[in-house]
Every structure is written in C-alpha cells, then in structure tokens.
Amino acid sequence: MSEKTSAIHYINYLELEKILNAQHPVSGNTKEAAHEETLFIIIHQTYELWFKQILHEMQSIVDLLKSKKIDESSIGIVVNRMERINKIMDTLINQIEILETMTSLDFLNFRNHLSPASGFQSHQFRKIEIMSGLKIKQRHEFGGCPYHAQFEGEKKEEVMELENNESLFNLIEKWLERIPFLKIEDFDFIKKYEESVNKMIQKEVSIIKDSNLINKTERDIRLKMINENKKYFERVLNEQDHNQAINDGETSLSYKATMSALLINLYRDEPILHLPYKLLQNLIEFDHKIATWRFRHMQMVEKMLGQKIGTGGSSGQGYLKETVDKHKIFTDLANISTLLISRSELPALPDKIKKSLGFNYSK
After folding, report:
1. pLDDT higher for 253 or 142?
2. How far apart are CA 314 and CA 324, in angstroms?
3. What HEC string does 103-126 produce?
4. How far is residue 130's CA from residue 128's CA, in Å, rounded to a whole number?
5. Rounded distance between C-alpha atoms, residue 118 and residue 297, angstroms
6. Which of 21, 34, 45, 276 would be 110's cystine partner, CB 3.0–4.6 Å?
C-alpha cells in the first residue's frame, strides 16, 4: 500500500504571489509609473517585514523577563535574541544606502502622490518603540498631536494597551534590582566601591600636587576637574540624590538597578556575570543602532528634500533630528561607563563570593 505524501512548494510556502504582487505605484500603471517608485515601495515593505521579526523577538524577550525567577539559561536566550535584533538593525541601516541610489529629482517624480502617507504612520515601528520603553511622556511630538492620533480602531487600541504594559526597560530594571550581589554577608559593594573611588581620587590628587612637570595654572585646573569628578561620584552614589534626579527627569533607572548594572560592568570577568554584561551591552547597542537608523534617515531626508515639510505634515528633517537623542531608552545603562574604575582599583571580592560568582549562586 502506497502512502500519499503531501509536498509543500516554495512559492506556496512563502506566499510569493501575495508578496510579489503587493507593489502598486500610485504615480501610474506599468511603464507610466515613476521608475523609482517600485524601489521606494519595496524598501519600505522590507522594513515592515523586518519590524515584524523584531517584534517577534522582542515579545519573546519580554515574556522571558516577566518571570519572577529568571533561569540563567533564559538570559542566554535573551542575549541571543537581542543580538539577532541588532543584526537586523544593521540591515535596516544599510538599506538606506540602496534607497539613496534614488536622486532627489527621482523622488520628486512621485512624492506629490504620497501625501498624507508618512513613515510616522508605521504601526509596527511605534510598537517597537513602546515595547522598548519609549512611552508617550518621553516623546518629541510634532504639530501638538500625540503619536497615537495617527491610528484608529484596533491599531490605536493596541498601542494604547502597550502604553500601559511593562516595557523592556521596566523588566530589565526589575531584573537588575533582583540581582543579589550588592550586599552579601559582610561584603557591601556600594560601600567598598565608594572607598575605592575615594582612594583613586586621592591618589590622582597626590600625583598632580607632587608633579614638577606642570605649572600652577595647569595644576589648579586639573585639581578642579578632579574635585568635580568627586562631586559627580558622590551624587550618583547617594540614593536620595539619585531619586531626586529621577523626579527631575535627569535619569530613569532606579538607584538599586543602577548599582547592580555598575557591579555587573565592574566584575564582568566573573563567569556568572558574563551573560548579564552581554545583555546590558546589547541593550545599549540596540539603542545606538536605532539612533543611527534615525540619523541616517535624517541625513537622507536632508539630502533629498532639504527643509521641505514631510508628506505626513511633520517638519521633515527637523523632526528627525529631535528624535535622534530624545528617543533613546537605555541611556542610563550607557552612562555606567562614567563610573567605571580600573581593574587595579576594584575592591577585592572575598573568596566565598568569588566562588559563588564563578559557578552558581544560592541563598
């Protein structure tokens, strides 16, 4: 008796008929259409496909981080998926080079047909921003209208629901706050770190005061700079000052999460902290790649359109410039680098703690 086997065809599996017939230039039909419009459509359709994959990866990361107790192996999965997202972002950035093969005059052949359509109306990209942690109060708006005014019905409901959900930023903050290494038995990391910083600063002051290679003016300038650095360290390490900075909108990451991120960065060489360190670096990299994508987009718009108003009614490249820095999410993690000290100045870990960081930790 022969068994019937069903075979799926490449064309059907990928639904190529739908994809390859989804390009409909508005400037005309077939040869009457502006030649460059097909490129414009395909580039943006490709962006949306990659946005879908980023959302797929990001949702899985959020789901893993929602657990009250996160298994160490889950951090490895999160790191892998964040690295994938960052590789996708590289592709999105590089696609701009393809779009830039279209000249300004080429674009003007069909641009008048696009209004009021705009990249600002990308529902998927707005979801990526919100899920990452960019909520409405942090956004740079144009025309006095909130971003969600661009959507209606289910799409608007979806972004508004995401506004109320925990973001990747929130979940990373909670994960950092749960890390148990800030105070273990007699080892108080923050206290030991502060002592090391003070010793390091005192050493720098002594070197400058004892140096015969600089004159009084230079010496005074350098001592003043060191004193300012000391004030900065003192302010960051003071929990009350940190909370005030959060209230003033100068920082977002909680004090405990910031101290945990600092510990991870300083003791990254300990085996159990390898993956947490990679995760933090991947989040910073993601932030930088999104900013790079916005910046390259802004440069392209500047080159193509100068100061023209965007098709969606925004200020064009002016709006894009504002979003490059204002819409960063993981700046506090990047700023940890300001607090790093050399390995030679690090507080020595007690043997028992060093052993627990080497393999496994249990209370």
Report:
1. 253
2. 15
3. CHHHHHCCHHHCCCCCHHHCHHHH
4. 6
5. 13
6. 34
